[in-house]
Every structure is written in C-alpha cells, then in structure tokens.
C-alpha cells in the first residue's frame, strides 16, 4: 500500500503507471477475502466486489 501511495503521488496525472502496484494490492486483498469468506477487514482494501471487479477488468 505504501509503494502504491508513493507511485500515485509521483504520477498524479498518469495513475496507469501504478497498475503493477494496484494489482499487487488487489491480489493481496482478494486472497484475504477468499481466506475469510469475504469477512476480512483492512483499511487498504476496498470491498470484495470492488476488488474482484477491478481484477476482472484488468487482466494480466
């Protein structure tokens, strides 16, 4: 999350340059949600449906 924040701060007008960091964060969030049947909580992770939709819309 810290690397993502730094990247977004450096690339204010081109957030697509931070997609690698977004993917890493969202994959981590997705793993947490899968392990907790969507009951896990983290201030760094959006809701499970948002994580899954982002991953679906941004295939590798």
Secondary structure layout plus pairing:
Blueprint lengths: L1 H9 L8 H17 L12 H10 L3
Helix pairs in contact: 2-3
Could you please describe the fold and organization of this structure?
With 60 residues, this protein is an all-alpha fold. The protein has one domain. The protein is 60% helix and 0% strand. It contains three helices and no strands. Helix 2 packs across helix 3. The radius of gyration is 12 Å and the shape is globular. The two termini are 20 Å apart. The mean pLDDT is 92.
Keywords, please?
globular; 0% strand; 60 residues; mainly alpha; Cys_alpha_HP_mot_SF; mitochondrion; disulfide bond; Cx9C motif-containing protein 4, mitochondrial; CMC4
**Low-confidence segments, ≥5 residues, pLDDT <50?**
none
Question: Which word captures the global form?
Answer: globular
> What fraction of residues sit in β-strands?
under 5%
User: How many domains in all?
Assistant: 1
H-E string: HHH
Our count of helices gives 3
State the helicity in percent bands. 55-70%
Q: What class do helices, strands and sheet pairing give?
A: mainly alpha
Radius of gyration over C-alpha positions, nearest whole angstrom:
12 Å
Measured between the Cα atoms of the first and last residue, the distance is 20 Å
* Total count of strands: 0
Please describe the biggest sheet, giving its number of strands, its sense, and whether it closes into a barrel: none
* Overall pLDDT score: 92
